[in-house]
Write a structure and sequence with these properties.
Largest sheet: 5 strands, parallel
Bound molecules: adenosine-5'-triphosphate, (3R,4S,5R)-3,4,5-trihydroxycyclohex-1-ENE-1-carboxylic acid, magnesium ion
CATH class: Alpha Beta
Subunit structure: Monomer.
Number of domains: 1
Oligomer: single chain
CATH superfamily: P-loop containing nucleotide triphosphate hydrolases
Pathway: Metabolic intermediate biosynthesis; chorismate biosynthesis; chorismate from D-erythrose 4-phosphate and phosphoenolpyruvate: step 5/7
Pfam family, one: SKI
Structural class: alpha/beta
Keywords: Amino-acid biosynthesis, Aromatic amino acid biosynthesis, ATP-binding, Cytoplasm, Kinase, Magnesium, Metal-binding, Nucleotide-binding, Transferase
Order of helices and strands: EHEHHHEHEHHEH
CATH architecture: 3-Layer(aba) Sandwich
Number of helices: 8
Strand content: 5-15%
CATH topology: Rossmann fold
Radius of gyration: 15 Å
Cofactor: Mg(2+)
Strand order of the largest sheet: 2-3-1-4-5
Shape: globular
């Protein structure tokens, strides 16, 4: 049975997709991102799924994408920020090397401001991100087998720390 070398979790802007790609390169492994898997299945961007089908439908597609990727993928897997909201997904993560990318509000706001539209953050990114981060922090912490701080650090530095901290 295959299993990912690392599963990255954390809030929007923590760098799951960026670091995931770098880490996969460093490990000589493949990279997979469940947001991209959902987009492939839905045939449209995540933001369109939220607007046209609703968040609940997105969460269903996401839970299925995570289930499939955990069973099929043997490289680095980045999850969508909210994938850990589903109990079934939290249970499936047990026993995998789960890396929580920690980020403070200031750095997260700066990073998401630079990137593409995020459907949960369209109205007031700073306050929505603050609430979401506070609600989810205990869940990310509980699921993590490795916690890596990302504030003020380059993607390369963060990737180095993960490589050192992963099980051999
Ligand atoms: N350590 C870092 N330092 C500076 N910028 C970063 C860092 N990590 C990521 N970024 C930048 O922040 C933005 C968000 O990163 P990324 O898309 O990887 O986050 P994410 O955790 O995958 O978010 P989401 O949950 O929305 O998918 C990107 O523009 C990326 O280049
Ligand atoms: O944190 C979240 O709930 C989300 C994060 C993104 O990765 C996407 O999965 C989507 O924008 C929702
Ligand atoms: Mg991402």
């Amino acid at each position: 049975m295959t299993s990912p070398r690392a599963v990255l979790i954390g809030p929007p802007g923590s760098g799951k997709s960026t670091i995931g790609r770098l880490l996969a390169g460093r490990l000589g492994a493949g990279f997979r991102d469940t947001d991209e898997d959902v987009e492939a299945v839905a045939g449209k961007p995540v933001s369109d799924v939220f607007v046209e089908d609703g968040e609940e439908r997105f969460r269903e597609l996401e839970a299925e994408a995570v289930r499939r990727a955990l069973a099929e993928h043997d490289g680095v897997l980045s999850l969508g920020g909210g994938a850990i909201l589903r109990e079934a997904t939290r249970e499936l993560l047990a026993g995998h090397p789960v890396v929580y990318l920690q980020v403070g509000l200031a750095d997260a706001v700066q990073r998401v401001g630079l990137a593409q539209a995020r459907p949960l953050l369209v109205l007031n990114p700073r306050s929505q991100l603050k609430r979401l981060m506070e609600e989810r922090r205990p869940v990310y912490e509980r699921l993590a087998s490795l916690i890596v701080a990302t504030d003020g650090r380059t993607p390369e530095e963060i990737t180095d720390e993960i490589v050192k901290g992963l099980p051999a």
